[in-house]
Automatic annotation (TrEMBL):
UniProt GO cellular component terms: plasma membrane
PROSITE patterns per the UniProt record, alphabetical: HIS_KIN (PS50109), PAS (PS50112)
Record protein name field: histidine kinase
Native species: Planotetraspora mira
Known catalytic reactions: ATP + protein L-histidine = ADP + protein N-phospho-L-histidine
Source lineage: Bacteria, Bacillati, Actinomycetota, Actinomycetes, Streptosporangiales
Ranges of residues in domain PAS: 1-81
Keyword match S-adenosyl-L-methionine: no
Class of the enzyme per the UniProt entry, highest EC level: transferase
Amino acid sequence: MRQNLDYAALFAAVPSPCLAMTPDMTVVAVNQAYLDAHGRRREELLGRHVLDSCALDHADPVKQRALRNLEASLRRAEATGKPDVMAPHKCAMPISRSAHPTEGHHWSMINSPVLGSDGAVVLFVHRTEDMSAFLQQRRGSRSGVSRTGAGAAEMQELNEQVRKANTVAEQLLRRQRQFTADASHELRTPLTALRLQVEEAQLHRDDIDLPDLLNHLTADLDRLESIIDDLLLLATLEVDLDARLEEVNLTSLVEAVAARWTVSHDVRLDLEPAVTVEADSWQITRLLANLLDNARRHATRRLRVDLRRTGDHAELAVADDGQGVRPADRDRIFQRFVRLDTARSRDHGGAGLGLAIARDIASAHYGTLHVEDSADGGACFVLRIPLVS
């Protein structure tokens, strides 16, 4: 079983200066990049107001204005549920940790809300970027470029880069919350079953069929391990994905994965040759296996897999001849732990994570996955991901 991710370590390793604060702007976490950039010590910030990161007097009108601007930015982020980018702000920072003199730096700041299960803000992630060198270069330029021309365009581009970088910490926090919610939701049932079996064995030791008990315990443990592995996969799909991308012959990959089902099922393939995509081959293999396993469980007699080029995308369709999916359920079926067939047991129907994993893998590869009617009357799952350009 793989170890749980250390999200605190991931936050600490984010290369951009970041801190986390409560809605009243009390700092509760700060990464090393922030400490290095602002010349502060961790104990100087934790438990204190975020503006104490600036070495300014509280009565200073500049700091009062900075406070109002920050509060306004946080309220906008709270109201919209989206990151808010502040205008560059000048703040005096120590030149080094050991130095008393300060120098003025201009900082671009982004405030991203972290929402709790009830939709209320529980934290803000505050990210800063030192723009001093950039602004100094702009002031020293003698090109005569209008502030509303190319200069504004460059500033907009820089803010966009800052916004994109900020989403790294935001995604990590969101996935941590989702992992916690999913784990508590789904692990409770097999854990309860394990406890009941053990307690029953303790009460009736003379009536125990030990081999049967161990078989049941092992099956429940296997199920727990499978659920945890799936949840960890969902939590880490996009981590370092770009570094794992390679050119993948999707045609060959589909043939290899489908071969596992052709021995026991009627699987018909209609594949264009040499359809190539840029992907993590392991994740795409998992996606294909999940779609084929889902089709197998619902098919009456046969499955069909089609692969073709459609514009600048590869389009893969996995269809069965079962009962299909009602239009009202076609989005819900991709939600985690959803099982449309309530009569199907958890042991035979799975944890309800297969299609959620498949769609998240498609999304991580800048693709889509949806379900529609198949020509045979069942369900047809259609995957579209970009071709290698």
